[in-house]
Amino acid sequence: MKYIIAIIQPDRLDHVLDLLEKKEIHLVTVSNVMGRGRQKGIATVYRSHLEAGSLLKKVKLEIAVNDAFVKATLDAITEGARTGEIGDGKIFVLDLHDCIRVRTGETGGVAIG
Ligand SMILES: Nc1ncnc2c1ncn2[C@@H]1O[C@H](COP(=O)(O)OP(=O)(O)OP(=O)(O)O)[C@@H](O)[C@H]1O
Ligand SMILES: [Mg+2]
Q1: Residue 60: which region, alpha, beta or left (left: phi > 0; alpha: psi -120 to 50)?
Q2: Which bound ligand lies closest to the C-alpha atom of 78?
Q3: According to the model, what pLDDT value does residue 62 have?
Q4: Counting atoms of ligand 1 from 1, which one is nearest the CA of 41?
Q5: Which residues pair with 57 in a beta bridge?
Q6: In this structure, what DSSP letter does residue 98 have?
Q7: Of 5, 26, 54, 77, which shows the fewest CB atoms inside 10 Å?
Q8: Is pLDDT at 14 greater than 60 in this prediction?
Q9: 75: part of which helix (H) or strand (E)?
Q10: Element (H, E) at 110
């Protein structure tokens, strides 16, 4: 199991979610966050606007998936978020040790989806 964290441009969120749904990936956590990458938060001319000094508004997606869904998840995020411009985002892939559905007590891969 993997825990996938993606930081993307807010205006790409709907497209990424559409592509994830097409691949049967429905369970996701989405947060509004602020961040900076290699350009240290210098706003691009036409997309993000500068906030709180050197931080730009971004969207964070968090998705826990079984191994069989890792590639589809990464492909959907990459395809949906990419424009080719700086600041398109970054994806982090973490090993996930366990998952527990609180209502039933199910654990592991069964509890993920
Ligand atoms: N090493 C990192 N650690 C934590 N967060 C990061 C890291 N790299 C990027 N991020 C987050 O991802 C967001 C988007 O990063 P961004 O796409 O600008 O990456 P980049 O490495 O600067 O690549 P690019 O040159 O394409 O802009 C950042 O605003 C930040 O929130
Ligand atoms: Mg950058």
Answers
A1: beta
A2: 1
A3: 99
A4: 29
A5: 34
A6: -
A7: 26
A8: yes
A9: helix 70-81
A10: helix 109-112
Closest residue by Cα to atom 7, ligand 1, is 37
Instruction: Please report how many Cα atoms fall inside a 13 Å half-sphere around the Cα of residue 73, on the Cβ side.
Output: 23
Does ligand 1 lie within 6 Å of residue 35's CB atom?
yes
Residue 86: exposure state from Cβ atoms within 10 A (0-12, 13-18, ≥19)? exposed
Q: Is 82 touching ligand 1 by the criterion CB < 6 Å?
A: no
Q: How far apart are CA 106 and CA 113, in angstroms?
A: 11
pLDDT above 90: residue 41: no
Instruction: Note the pLDDT of residue 78.
Output: 98
pLDDT at 38: 87
Find out whether 7 and 58 touch, Cβ atoms under 8 Å.
Answer: yes
Sign of the dihedral through C-alpha 34, 45, 80, 87: negative
Mean pLDDT for the chain overall? 92
Measured distance CA(80)–CA(28) in Å, rounded? 15
| Tokens 């956590």 sit on residue | 29
Q: What is the pLDDT of residue 46?
A: 45
